[in-house]
Specification:
mainly beta, 19-stranded parallel beta sheet, 9-stranded parallel beta sheet, 33 strands, about 5% helix
Length: about 325
């Protein structure tokens, strides 16, 4: 009798969790009423489940299973102001587990961070996000960068737009602090940083960009479009156009012993004080490896290239390959 009671108690404590699908049906920015109950619901007293994006992410964070969040067309404005919090209760949407977020397309599904006065997403787990526009997030002064997204984990972002986000210090759009990031069929545009990396800043990990447009981003210092510092960045069939940096690398910067590989890309119409297209000259912390194949680097102000490049052939422009 006693052994049966003990077994029943153990089964109650360690009951298995299963992957869930949460369908968002509320655009308001409200937290889940009980993140531990397995139901995405902001109001337990009302019949049915009222599921917000924030509540769905809080539910997904509870366990390690791969949960799915269906995000229909609509504008989801983050309004719960706050920062320095990792439970997705206020400020940005913190993803700490494994989740797939599927929107209805970047023109239809918009996540707007302006009123939260924080970035939009912070990834500490494993996230796959598709079919959304991420806009108007802001990383405040003294905080870490990435007005749109900050990644420490694993992120796959497809068929999406990151736009009009700001970083008071580094990184307006996407801040990669480590892990593995894949961007495919993504637009990163009109983001601004108070220091480096207007569109994207990579300070660790591996980043793979395929058919990504990095356009009209601005950095107060280096890397208007993208700055890579000591990490690995691979760009395939990408367009880096119309970006601006006040100092080096209007389009791209590869520095601090970074590795960058470009294939089938176009770098054009960018501007900076030096290296309007791409700057690879900073080797203070180690030599950089920048390999370029079937890529056009042309019509950038203050020089298409500054620093060494290794050619795989098929390139066009004024750089010395």
């Amino acid at each position: 009798m006693r052994s049966a009671l003990v077994l029943a108690t153990v089964l109650t404590i360690v009951r298995p969790a299963f992957a869930a699908t949460f369908t968002v049906n509320e655009t308001a920015d409200l937290a889940d009423a009980d993140p531990s109950d397995g139901a995405c619901d902001i109001d337990l007293a009302t019949l049915g489940e009222q599921c917000t994006l924030r509540a769905a992410i809080q539910q997904a964070n509870v366990d390690a299973d791969l949960d799915t969040i269906m995000l229909p067309s609509g504008t989801y404005r983050l309004t719960r102001r706050g920062g320095d919090e990792d439970e997705a209760a206020i400020g940005d949407l913190d993803i700490g587990s494994s989740v797939v977020i599927t929107g209805a397309g970047p023109k239809a599904t918009i996540v707007d961070g302006r009123k939260a006065r924080d970035r939009v997403f912070e990834i500490r787990g494993d996230a796959t996000i598709s079919g959304v526009t991420i806009r108007r997030g802001k990383a405040a002064a003294g905080s870490t960068g990435g007005g749109g997204i900050r990644n420490h984990g694993t992120l796959t972002l497809t068929d999406s737009v990151v736009t009009r986000c700001r970083g008071a210090d580094d990184v307006g759009g996407i801040d990669v602090r480590g892990g593995h990031v894949i961007l495919r069929d993504v637009v990163v545009s009109h983001n601004r940083s108070g220091d480096d990396g207007g569109g994207i800043d990579v300070d660790g990990g591996v980043v793979e960009l395929t058919r990504v447009l990095i356009q009209r981003n601005r950095a107060t210092d280096e890397g208007g479009g993208l700055e890579n510092s000591g990490a690995v960045v691979m760009l395939t069939d990408c367009r880096i156009m119309g970006n601006k940096a006040r100092t080096d690398g209007g389009g791209l910067v590869n520095e601090d012993g970074g590795t960058m590989v470009l294939s089938g890309c176009v770098i054009a119409g960018n501007r900076a004080k030096t290296g309007g297209g791409i700057d690879t000259a900073d080797v203070v912390l180690g030599p950089n490896s920048t390999t370029v194949g079937n890529t056009t680097i042309a019509k950038n102000r203050r020089g298409d290239c500054n620093g060494p490049l290794t050619s795989l052939g098929g390139n066009a422009g004024s750089c010395s390959f």
